[in-house]
Amino acid sequence: MARSPLLQLTDISLTFGGNPVFDGVGLVVQPGDRVALVGRNGSGKSTLMKVMASIVEPDSGNRTIPAGKSVGYMEQEPEMAGFETLGDFATSGLDAADAYKVEMAAEGLKFDPTTPVATASGGERRRAALAKLMADAPDVMLLDEPTNHLDIEAIAWLERTLSTTRNAFVLISHDRAFLTALTKATLWIDRGQVRRQDQGFAAFESWRDTAWAEEDLNRHKLDRKIKAEARWAVEGISARRKRNQGRVRALQELRAERSSMIKRQSTAAMAFDSGEKSGKKVVEAKGIAKSFGDNTVLRPLDITIQRGDRVAFVGPNGVGKTTLIKMLLGDEQPTEGTIKRGTNLKVAVFDQTRAQLDPDRTLWESLANDPSMAVSGRSDQIMVRGTPKHVVGYLKEFLFSELQTRAPVRSLSGGEKARLLLAKLMAQESNFLVLDEPTNDLDIETLDLLQDILGDYDGTVLLVSHDRDFIDRVATTTVTLEPGGRATVYAGGWADMLAQGGMASSFQETTAKPKSKSAPPAAKKETSQKSGLSFTEQHRLENLPAEMERLSAEIAKLEELLADPNLFTENPVKFQKATDALVERHTNLSNAEEEWLELEERAGG
User: Fold this and answer.
1) Domain span at residue 251?
2) Which tops the pLDDT comparison, 306 or 582?
3) 268 occurs within a structural domain
C-alpha cells in the first residue's frame, strides 16, 4: 500500500541575485524517511531545507503538507527575543506535561536551561533550538548541521535518540559516521538539480562517482559528434546548402546542448608545505599534570610525539583538550612534570573560533594585510610559501569568486570561513600543525582533500575533533581525556581506541539503550526527583550491570587466551596485547563496580 507523503515539493525554482539556485526541483519525504541531504558547499542545501520549512519562498513551484502533519526546522540562529532563559525558549509551545522532554534533551546536549538568553553563546543557542525541535517531535524534522558545537558525548546521545525516533527527518551534516549510522536515503544537490537514491549515505560516494563517470562519458561522446558534424559542415556545406539545412540546424542544437552542460565545481587547490624538517622528536612530556586551584584538569601523563605523528585529542567539551595542547606547545606551563620540545619547530594553528579572521575585513584584506603574507610595495600580491602570487588568483584556488574577494568576511558561510582560514595557513611554511575542529562546515569533497594532504604532509599534526570518521582516516595516535583529569594514549584512530577499551564509560553512557516506555512521563520525572539522580545518572545506573557483565566476559576470554603456555614464545606481540587488554578490563570493571555502588547508594538515599 502506497504511503502518503508528509512533505512534497513540486517544480521548485529559485533565483538569488540573478543566479539560479534551483530549477524545476521536486522531492518527497515519506513517513519513516531518514534522509541525508548532501552537496558541495554553496550548492544550496540550507536554502532547500528552508524552502522545505517554508522559511524561504521559491519563485515558482508548490510545497504541500497534508492536513494534520507538521514540519519542524532547527534554526541555525534562533530568534529568542522575549525569552528570559534558554529553557523558556525551548519549552515555548509545549504542553506543561511535556516540559520534561526539554530537560532530558538539555542533559543529553549539555546545556543549562536556566542560562539567560542574553549571555548564552551561539553554540548554547543552537543546542537549545535542537532541544526544542526534539521535544516538539514534528512529523518531519529538518536538521541543518546539528552536530556543530556538540562534543563527542552529545553527538552520541543525539545519534542514539534519532536512531529510535519514528519521525521522519532530513539531515545535513559533514560528519560521515553520523550520516552513515542514521540515514536510509540520500538527496543529492548538484548544480541546481536534486537526485534521490533510496540508500543511506554509506552508498553515496559510489553513486556520485558513477553518475559523474556517466556524465563525463556522455560529454565526451557529444564532443566527438559535434567535432564530426563541424568537419562535415566546413568541408561540404556550400555544395549541399539547400539539401542539408536540417543537418546544420542539428549541429547548432548539439552545440547548444553542449554549452548548457553546467561544469562541475573543481576542488580547492589545497596544499601544506612542511618546509624545513623539525627534529625527529617533536615533544616529550613526562609526568605532566595541571590544576587550577582545587580543579584537576590533567593527572600525570607521559606522551612522546615524533615527527610525522598525527595525534588526535578527543573527549567531552571542557575536559582540558585545549589546555593540554597549549602545554605541549609551550603556551601554558604544567603544574608538575617536564616538557621538552624539539628543534626547528614552525607551528601553524587552525582555530575553531576563527579568531584569526577579522569579520569586518574583506577577503582580499585578510590576506594582503597579514604581515606574514604581505609583499613589500604590492597591495595586490601575497607571499605563498616563498613565492609571490596575486591575491585574487590565490583565493580562486580556494573556490572564491572575484566578486567575493571584495566582500567582508562576515558575509561568508561557515564552510567558506574554514576555507579562508585554510588559505591563510597553507600560505606559510610549517612543520607542526595544530588543527582545532577543522572539519566543521566543510563539505565531503573538501574533507577528502584535507585528509589526503594531511596524509602527504611531512610534518606533525595535533588534531582536536569530534568527527569520528575523520579521526579514523587521519590519526596515528588517539589521546582520550575524561572528566577528573584522566588522559590515556592509544595507538591508532577512533575505532582502534574503542577496540582497546577507551572511553568505555563516558561514550557508552550516551549510547545506552533508552529506558522502558511503560512508565508515563510524569512518573519518570517523579522518580528522578525522589532518587536525587539526574536522568543521565539514572540511565547510567540501569546500564552499568550490562557493562560489568560484558567486561567480566571479556576478562574470562582474555584469561583463557593467556592460559596457553606457548603463547608467549610463539607470539610475544599477541601475548603483550592480551596482557595489556586484561589489565585495562580489570581496571574498567573495578571503576564500574565503584560507580554502581555510589549511584545505588545515592538512589537508595
Assistant:
1) 218-260
2) 306
3) no
